[in-house]
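User: Hello, beginner here. Can you help me understand these amino acid letters and fold codes? It all follows right here:
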Amino acid sequence: MEIIYSKWLPDSKTDESRLEDLISIFSSVLVQTNGDIDEALDWLEQMGIEYQLFDKDLTFGDFVEELKKQGYIAEKEGIHILTSKGSRKIRSDMLRKIFSGLKPDASGFHESNKSGRGVDKLGELKKFEFGDQISNIDLTSTLKNAFLKSDPNNYRLGEEDIDVFETEHISSCSTVLMIDISHSMILYGEDRITPAKEVALALSELILTKYPKDKLNIVIFGDDAHEITVRDLPFLTVGPFHTNTKAGLRLARQILRKNGNVNKQIFMITDGKPSALFTDDGRIYKNSFGLDPKIVNKTLDEAVACRKDKIKITTFMIAQDYYLVRFIEEFTKANNGKAYYSDLDNLGQNIFVDYLKNRRKFN
């Protein structure tokens, strides 16, 4: 039998890595199609023809079957649906996409270097103190200490013999990510909602995998505000809405109060000034022109209420509208928070760097 070896090239890909790349592309396309799997597959098939993504070794049909085989999608009554595993895959792909663009000094996970009575064990041992968790006792070292000091016929274990693992002190924080879903998020041919969704998916995966004691809630706001789950994110769309920033902030503040964590923060992604609010009788009041004092003042009241509740607000502006910038300047002063102008390409980097910096401050 003759074996022929071809020259290895730096960009050569194994079948597994090629398939993994295609699945990651599918994840990105799926976010853009708002979770519509059939539309995403149509897009991918057209991309495959244009960019020669598939061949006889891996046809488009093979790829679809592989998605089903690996449990990322399923078929129910002739309709493709996204599975829980598929949702996790999208989140991990978005996390990898954003972190691959982070600068080396910003992408590390920075935990506290303080010791305490946390839950993550370190390699070092210390003597037992009142309040240390029993589960952190090093049984081998403890028995050895007692054995070395005891008579073989009179084995005695004292409190002074007990060694426990040092634990890393990790404080937790509660974060509400507010996403603007007003109509301007897709106006003028610029898709602003997809990058916002990608950031939300990646941030949720970061917290679920690296900081499981942290809490992340997601609030969307247009004419009104609603909380959605992480599973809802790929399917999130904008609507013919105005921007009721006040309603979003109020809901976020209520959520953070219930969470009870000492460290509380709001990340708000928006591309427009506040242009709507609910009146005392429950009606929606809207005004898209300029900065309406009635709307602005009520929204600033919410910023002050958040400050009194020790909730820091960081605003990520993905537009440079004159009225938006003017409002955010006043808003940031009222809350004593922060604001960034973020173009769509670096939105993820800005949010992730700020999140990691804030965790270091909390610790």
